[in-house]
Amino acid sequence: MARVTALLARSGSAAFSLPRLTLAAATAAIVIAVIGGPLVLRRSHSDQIAHEVVSAHIRSLMPGHLTDVLSSDQHTVKPWFAGKVDFSPPVVDLKDEEFPLVGGRLDYIDNRPVAALTYRRREHIINVFVWPSPSKTDAPETLEEGQGYNALSWTREHTNFWAVSDLNASELRQFAQLVRDRASG
After folding, report:
1. Contact at 8 Å (CB) between 184 and 156?
2. Domain-by-domain residue ranges, the chain?
3. C-alpha–C-alpha distance, residues 23 and 132, integer Å
4. Fold of the domain built from segment(s) 36-183
5. What is the pTM for the complete model shown?
6. Tens-digit pLDDT profile for residues 126-169
């Protein structure tokens, strides 16, 4: 070790100066934090929402938590949300496509009250969490998988949607497409 130190001291090269190496490392860390930090935070927020909707879905499956308003009639479920949330959630009738409406409830996602619409496909429950989006642009569908559940998210017409179920990904995508088609306009 002493030999290396002596060699560095004799070289007189500023490139091996410890203060300069420290400064370069600190500068690199700041650049990475400034450029990469927002990307990490954005991803972390998306992961947090995915975790929240899956947790809310699991809680809804506990006895007595599935719905606050039990009805297969969209004209009963939609007005039930009036005065409970600050938006009007799109409630669509999909019984002819074998995704009957079960009802709705209030939930809490991303630090705000949201509408949770409940549908069924055979013995599978599908929760669709809906709330206004601050984004002015639509976002394409993305699929998250975890804890034995599929969570499909998209943003359309200033509204966030998350559909969560243990239904297979293909049928959940079919369901989401029906919701998008019927909820538009």
Report:
1. yes
2. 36-183
3. 45
4. Phosphorylase Kinase; domain 1 (3.30.200)
5. 0.77
6. 999 999 999 889 999 999 998 999 999 999 999 999 999 999 99
